[in-house]
Amino acid sequence: MFGHEGTKNFNFTRYIVLLWKSFLCAHTILPFSMKKENLKNIRIKDIAIMAGVSEGTIDRVLHNRGEVSEKTRLKVEHVLNEIEYSPNLLARSLASKKKFLFTCIIPEHKPNDYWQSVEDGFNLAARDFSQYNVQLKKYYYDQYDANSFTILSEKIINDQPDALIIAPIFKEETIKLIQLPGFKHIPFSFIDSMLEELDFLTYYGQDSFQSGYVAARLMTQSIPQNAEVLIIRNKRKGAVSNQTFVRKKGFIQYLIDFKLSNIKLIDIELHENDDDANYKVLQKVFQKYDNIQGAITFNSKVYRLAGYFEELHYNHIQLIGYDLLEENIGYLKKGVVSFLLAQRPEKQAYFTIRDVCMRLVMKQEVKKNNYMPVDIIIKENIEEYRQFTE
């Protein structure tokens, strides 16, 4: 074994490690049930037996919390290294003790809508983190009717979820939900937009104010001075969208900061499901104002506005909207939409579930505010952007 021909491929360090592991097995530190082929089923209880400490001590070492002597910590870490323990094994071990229900509250939607991307992110996270024994239950509300959000509260509280993930389109209704006695001790996270005054666990989404600020810069650098700009939103029952409100606030703040009082803003509301009425509204507006050079909608359905402009031959308008819906991309490529501001909704959803798992299951600290980048998309970079994110 140690002759000249054998030493060329002999790894002395590996040989010593193998001898050491054989020694451990011979001296019962690694029980029969914990042999290599069974390590995938390892439990914290088994690690505690191997290290000669309590399960609580193992938990404190793994999560780096509480007081553990240096000698004990080294003993535990030695066992973990010997059995090549991984975080995934820990996750399965912890999850086996409790099942978790996370309730997701988002707007109802059609396939290929913005909120479908959010739901896709939830579904991917549910599969990837199934080892935590986490179940997702989704509830849907009408984003154009605040009352539809309110009536969900009784159904949700009956489930007694361990956490809530909320898209808070309706600000006041969301606050009322969170403050109900039955929800008082349930941690919650926001997605897409947030309510800063509430003590949420995590937020993933754009800085809504900043995205409106960026949109104003794009708009004002694309139109002449003294131009008129349409601010377009959809009619809703009961409340204005929280996201729309904050984005518009950022848009206006940019005009204030750069003293662009010569830009005239014209607010109009369009119907969600009445194209004929919307055509008439736009025709009247263009008859009344003769210097409309730009238009912006602070939601994902800029394609509807683009379709109206194309049909009415308003080809000179600088049009800005949000999100990479296929319809939006189509009008961007045709030049009807000038800019799209994207925010990676599927990643927002995925990271939210991941962080709630880390906090509730693994007992680890997570970052509270997680702002997604404001991606500025034009027809010249759309294909490269999509290929990169895929």
Jot down its keywords.
390 residues; alpha/beta; 434 Repressor (Amino-terminal Domain); Rossmann fold
Mean pLDDT: 86
What's the CATH C level of the largest domain?
Alpha Beta
**Name given to the CATH homologous superfamily of the largest domain:** Response regulator
Residues in helix, %: 40-55%
Radius of gyration equals: 28 Å
What global shape is seen? elongated
Number of helices: 17
- How far is the first residue's CA from the last residue's CA? 52 Å
What is the number of E strands?
12
Proportion of residues in extended strands: 15-25%
Low-confidence segments: 1-37
CATH-derived topology of the largest domain: Rossmann fold
| Total separate domains | 3
Structural class computed from helices and strand pairing: alpha/beta
**How can the largest sheet be summarized?**
6 strands, parallel
- What order do the strands of the largest sheet run in, or round the barrel if closed? 2-1-3-4-5-11
Second rung of CATH, namely the architecture of the largest domain:
3-Layer(aba) Sandwich
Provide the succession of SSEs.
Answer: HHHHHHEHEHHEHEEHEHEHEHEHEHEEH
